[in-house]
Amino acid sequence: MSAVEAKLAELGLTLPEVVPPLAAYQPAVLSGVYVYTAGQLPMVEGKLPVTGKVGAEVTPEEAKDLARTCALNALAAVKSVAGDLDRIARVVKVVGFVASAPDFTGQPAVVNGASELLAAALGDKGVHARSAVGVAVLPLDAPVEVEIQVELVP
Predict the structure, then answer these.
(1) Which of 19, 2, 27, 139 is nearest to 78 (CA)?
(2) Alpha helix (H) ranges present in the chain?
(3) Residues in CB range of 62: below 8 A, 6 or more apart
(4) Global pTM?
(5) Which of 58, 86, 126, 129 is the most exposed place for a label (fewest CB within 10 A)?
(6) Residue 113 to residue 108: CA distance in whole angstroms
């Protein structure tokens, strides 16, 4: 077990299996020393626990927890191509998409769920640049989607 996975275990979390693609793409791609993940939905055992728009059917607090799940799924995708999460030199960028009710403006607080998980699991290596974007709809009516870019130790 990697040190990152041990830290996740301390947080009461287990790295899930990689979420299978919903269309024609790979969950993660390795290019040089960088791993780029596809957008990760908050799938748990193959299902979305909640659907709908944040600020309408989904509360911001629920969405923040879902963003955390997205980040955990993204780490699983990274491991699938890097082999070991201890190879992570740093998380470079996080992009979070939040399916938002028209008047909802709390996207940064929602995506904090992903950012906080990465920092908790990776320490300073998990601190990153980030975008948090409100969108009209996401695949499968998911409330949140997160993608990450990671630099590996060569």
Answers:
(1) 27
(2) 3-10, 60-82, 107-122
(3) 50, 143
(4) 0.96
(5) 129
(6) 9
Other CB atoms within 10 Å distance of the CB of residue 131:
13
As a whole number of Å, the end-to-end CA separation of the chain is: 20
Asked whether 146 and 70 are in contact (CB, 8 A), the reply is yes
The domains of the chain, with CATH numbers, are 3-152 (3.30.1330.40)
Render pLDDT for 83-95 as a digit per residue (tens, 0 to 9).
Answer: 999 999 999 999 9
Predicted confidence (pLDDT) at residue 154 exceeds the cutoff of 90: no
Contact yes or no for 78/37 (Cβ under 8 A): yes
Residue 1 pLDDT > 90: no
Measured over the CA atoms of residue 30, residue 31, residue 33 and residue 35, the dihedral's sign is negative
**What tens digit of pLDDT does each residue of 94-105 get?**
999 999 999 999
- Residues 6 or more apart whose CB falls under 8 angstroms from that of 106 comprise 54, 55, 60
